[in-house]
Amino acid sequence: MRLSSPIYKLKRQAKLAARDSGIPLHAALDQLAQKEGYKSWSHLSSATSPSGHARNLLKQLQPGDLVLIAARPGQGKTLFGLELALQANQSGWQSHFFTLEYTPADVLNRITQLGRKPEEISSSFNLDCSDEICASYVLDQLHHTQQKALVVIDYLQLLDQKRKNPELTEQLSELKDFTRNTGHIILMISQVHRNFDLAAKPLPDLSDIRLPNSVDLTTFTKTCFLHKGEIEFRAVNQSQ
């Protein structure tokens, strides 16, 4: 369910309503949440938190999906990708988090930010921070995976930073073939071009993805865009 406004704006509306009507803030928050289609503010908060969004998105994924998760810096795309991997792991999946951006200590710190204790995470959650990460490296690591797997790769623009690696289009095609043949799911985190900050739209879309070279983004089966607490998840038109 999409909110009429971002969370921070809804909170501001509730504060103004509480002041104008002389009711307690918690009552104003509950009233506003009910207008948004939720039982209470706590219900709204739970459903729209990173864990709530992750649970909702996982329910909509299908075997063989190749998903793009994209946002501007500071919007929580990496944290959301990590939450998805952890949620999938809790649901009995084998999950993998490959990152070219962060160190193991960085990722463990983010796991703590999500309210998780690293030592309590299942051994079927796999963290890989190798400098060699690219499509072929990822597939080599998944070669013997028999259990249903969800894979997060952080992030798209870094996959071809080494000249020895194939171009992004080739790597995405390789990943797409893998998901189609195995039924595993891969989620790719991506940057959004800075020009989006000046755009008159609430959320980025495929046209806002920052790319050094031309890449066929319709290779992805689904997209997930984040901005200021809003999340939009949709299927990609493969005929584009």
Gist of the model:
With 240 residues, the protein is of the alpha/beta class. It is built from eight helices and seven strands.
Describe the structure.
GO terms for molecular function: helicase activity. The model has no long low-confidence stretch (mean pLDDT 89). The radius of gyration is 19 Å and the shape is globular. 35% of the residues are buried. With 240 residues, the chain is of the alpha/beta class. It is built from 8 helices and 7 strands; from the N terminus they run ααααβαβαβαβαβββ. It has 2 domains: 7-48, no CATH class; 58-235, Rossmann fold, CATH 3.40.50.300. Helix 1 (7-21) crosses helix 2, helix 2 (25-35) crosses helix 3 (41-48) and helix 4 crosses helix 5. The protein has a 7-stranded mixed β-sheet.
Secondary-structure map with pairings?
Blueprint: H1 7-21, H2 25-35, H3 41-48, H4 50-60, E1 66-71, H5 77-90, E2 94-99, H6 104-113, E3 125-128, H7 135-141, E4 149-154, H8 168-182, E5 185-191, E6 222-227, E7 230-235
Parallel strand pairs: 1-5, 1-6, 2-3, 2-4, 4-5
Antiparallel strand pairs: 6-7
Helix pairs in contact: 1-2, 2-3, 3-4, 4-5
Fill in the keyword field for this structure.
8 helices, alpha/beta, 2 domains, seven-stranded mixed sheet, 240 residues, 17% strand, Rossmann fold
Largest sheet features:
7 strands, mixed
Mean pLDDT level:
89
Structural class: alpha/beta
Strand percentage: 15-25%
Order of helices and strands: HHHHEHEHEHEHEEE
State the fourth-level CATH superfamily of the largest domain. P-loop containing nucleotide triphosphate hydrolases
Shape summary: globular
Oligomer: single chain
Which CATH class of the largest domain applies here?
A: Alpha Beta
Strand segment count: 7
The CATH topology of the largest domain, please? Rossmann fold
Helix content: 25-40%
Termini gap = 27 Å
Low-pLDDT windows of residues: none
Rg (C-alpha, Å) = 19 Å
Keywords: ATP-binding, Helicase, Hydrolase, Nucleotide-binding
Pfam family, one: DnaB_C
Protein name: Replicative DNA helicase
InterPro entries: DNA_helicase_DnaB-like_C (IPR007694), P-loop_NTPase (IPR027417)
